[in-house]
C-alpha cells in the first residue's frame, strides 16, 4: 500500500466550500478519504467533486466565529475522525492606526481561537479512542512576515505557527501529528482585493519565483503528505507552498 493512501480515513475540513479548503478536501478524497465539511454555507460544489472522486461528504453547518458550535459539530460527525484540517479563516483590512476592536476580534476568533478549541475537541476524541491522527493548520506567509493593513490576520497567523509547535510538543507522544501548511499568494476570496489592485498585484507577482498566483489544487500534495502515513515522523513542521516567495 502506498504511504500516501488515505483509504478508510475520514477528514474533517473547515471552510471546505470554496478556495483552499475545497482544494484540500478534494485532494484528500482523491487519495481515498471521506470528508466531513464544516462551514457557514453548504459545500455543494465540493460535495460533487468529492463524489466524483468516489468518496462521501457529510456537510455540517456551523459558524466558527465562536466556539459555541464545536460541541454540536463533534456530536454530528458520523464515525471516527482521523484528520483535521483547520482551514476556516477570514481577513479584515485597515490601517493599524484605525483598526477596530470588532475587526480584531472577528478575525482572531475564527482564525486562532476556534482552530485551537476544535483541535482540542478532535484530539480528545482521538486520545479517548486510542487512534493516531493528523491535525493540519493553515498558516500563511504572514506567519513569517508582518504585512500591512492586516493587524489581526498577521497576529492570528503568527499565533497559528506557535500553536502548531506547542500542540506538536504535547501530542506527538500520543500519536497525533500536528503540522501546518503556509500557503503563499493564492487565487481565493481573501486575496481578491490584492488581485484587483493592479500595482499591488504586479508587485506580488514580481516577487514570486514561480511567476503566478497559486491555485487551490496546488495545496493538494502537501495536504495529502501531512495527512498520510508518509509524515508519521513529521511533527511541528510548517510547509510553505508559496511558489518560492519565502526563498526570494
First-last Cα distance = 38 Å
Detail the poorly predicted runs: none
H/E series, N to C?
EHEHEHEHEHEHHHE
Q: Using the coordinates shown, work out and report the CATH topology.
A: Rossmann fold
Coarse shape? globular
Biggest sheet: strand arrangement? 3-2-1-4-5-6-7
Could you name the CATH homologous superfamily?
Answer: NAD(P)-binding Rossmann-like Domain
| CATH architecture designation | 3-Layer(aba) Sandwich
Quickly count the domains: 1
Class inferred from helices and paired strands: alpha/beta
- Portion of residues in beta strands equals 15-25%
* Mean model confidence by pLDDT: 96
- The biggest beta sheet, please? 7 strands, parallel
Give me the number of helical elements: 8
If you compute it from the alpha carbons, what radius of gyration comes out, rounded to the nearest whole angstrom? 17 Å
Number of strands: 7
Helicity range:
40-55%
Quaternary structure type: single chain
Instruction: Just give the CATH class.
Output: Alpha Beta
